[in-house]
Prior knowledge:
Layout: E1 9-13, H1 18-29, E2 33-38, H2 41-50, E3 54-57, H3 63-77, E4 82-85, H4 100-128, E5 132-137, H5 141-144, H6 150-170, E6 175-182, H7 196-205, H8 214-225, E7 236-239
Parallel strand pairs: 1-2, 1-4, 2-3, 4-5, 5-6, 6-7
Helix pairs in contact: 1-8, 3-4, 4-6
The protein binds NADPH dihydro-nicotinamide-adenine-dinucleotide phosphate (NDP).
Amino acid sequence: MERRFDGSRVVVTGGARGIGACIAARFAAEGAQVAVLDRLAEAGSQCASGLGGRFHAVDLADPVAAREATEAAIEGLGGVDVLVASAGIFRLVPLLDITPEAWDEMLAVNARAVLVSMQVAARSMIAAGAGGSIITIASMAAKKGGAREGHYAASKAAVVALTRAAALEWGEHGVRVNALCPGYILTEMGAATRTEEDVRRWSSWSPLGRTGTPEDVAGVAAFLASPDGAYLTGQAINITGGMVMH
Ligand code: NDP
């Protein structure tokens, strides 16, 4: 394993499990100091301490708590070079059944909390004057929609739009902002409703003939934050095994 992030300070939201945990582990393996934010206190603190990092328990749906926890994480690290906003929720609900409460919950976690953590990280990066990399985790749903995931897709389209606005506003400070748009990544998310037949069908939609892994996403996140990603900003990068090509 290369050590491209020796001395780097990385904050990962939703880092207690799944894609976020894998990304936190990848940065730590490459030398970074990592802080993890999540509402899963036990899994999160185990994950962070296994990486020699810090853990901050927080419900990111609360914007004040989200801001304070992100500020505490950055203060604990003595600054921030990379933010990865991975925390998110997924619900399968037909469009006709989406209530105002369900909409608000989805947007609070998947979009507003992303904005709050981006704002806190960017303020710190701009003040420090050394640039930085912000990586948001959107979804292929932002680009192609999805039946029974209308509010999820809308929240992820919002993440892509926020990512592009931030890239435009913060580029002059050397802050690069990019979104990852994963396809089917087999984590706990959606596991309750996922069948073996689903996995076979999803695999057949990829020219590579398989679903994705958290490691597939973590490798792209590490590339984006590394010097090899230096001329990338405002991008929404598909990690779908070729299922989405636009
Ligand atoms: P997981 O459910 O495995 O992990 C998400 C983590 O975020 C969980 O620990 C979860 O805790 C936490 N989280 C959720 N809501 C909050 C909150 N309000 N405050 C603090 N922490 C919270 O999901 P994945 O790792 O699969 O997904 C990571 C990101 O990738 C998400 O944004 C997701 O939308 C996106 N994505 C995932 C895909 C996939 O196929 N897996 C495909 C495309 C995008 P809790 O369990 O308590 O909710």
